[in-house]
Amino acid sequence: MKKPLAATFLLAMCGFSPAMAQEQPPANFDNWGVCPFECCTYRDWTAEAAVPVHASRSELSPITFQLKPHEHVDALTGVVVTEKAGVIRVNRPVRDGYLPESAAPQLSLKAGDIVYLLAPLGEGAYLYWYRGKVYRSGPDMAAMPGVDGKAARMTWWKLVRNHAGKMGWTTSNKFSNADSCG
Q1: Hey, what's the torsion of the CAs at 138, 141, 143, 144, to 10 degrees?
Q2: CB neighbours (10 Å) of residue 101?
């Protein structure tokens, strides 16, 4: 038996198929541009406390500058890094899965299907992974088991620029004016 065929046979005997490996999102999945709560907006923010700003998206990278309390910065963009996706088990048939270019749901999910929570968007909406694609949830998915995201691990990195023109990354949530709803 050739090695690839033997490996496939062994995995199948253990109840694992190569297709299953593709069902979950990759580790450390980057969700660029996501502002992960209702009315979250990248714009002029104000530091509410001292905030360290790093050279890159790593707590181990050098701190390039420190924001002082009440200092204004331009929040340019952000990325929610999903280290571990939350598991959402669909508990009833539902039409869902919105893509940026579509107004109608793209998926017909059935009870027992699994989708993977990538990032909250507020108001019960979130980004999720299903069979290799990222979708935005609709209102019918808000009550599915696992939507609370408690099993997920995510880090929200924000790219900010101070008034001296220095830019860097922070995970701090100690900012005001990030919520455009008030």
Answers
A1: -160
A2: 5
- Please, are residues 122 and 36 in contact by the beta-carbon 8 Å criterion? yes
Listed residue (122, 152, 154) closest to 139, CA to CA = 122
- Which residue bears the tokens 């198929």? 17
Tokens 């694609």 locate to 133
- Cα–Cα dist 170/154, whole Å: 14
Spatial contact of 118 and 25, defined as CB atoms under 8 Å apart = yes
Distances (CA, A) of 123 to 11, 80, 130, 150: 41, 17, 21, 16
How does DSSP classify residue 181?
Answer: T
What average pLDDT is seen over the chain?
A: 87
Question: In whole angstroms, what is the distance from residue 142 CA to residue 148 CA?
Answer: 9
Q: What is the pTM of this model?
A: 0.80
Q: Each residue of 68-118: pLDDT tens digit?
A: 999 999 999 999 999 999 999 999 999 999 998 889 999 999 999 999 999
In eight-state DSSP terms, residue 174 is -
Name the strands in the sheet holding 133-136, side by side, starting at the edge strand that comes first in the sequence.
86-89, 114-122, 125-130, 133-136
Partners of 172 in beta bridges: none
CA 98 to CA 61: how far, in whole Å? 36
What are the two backbone dihedrals, phi and then psi, of residue 140, each rounded to the nearest 5 degrees? -70, -15
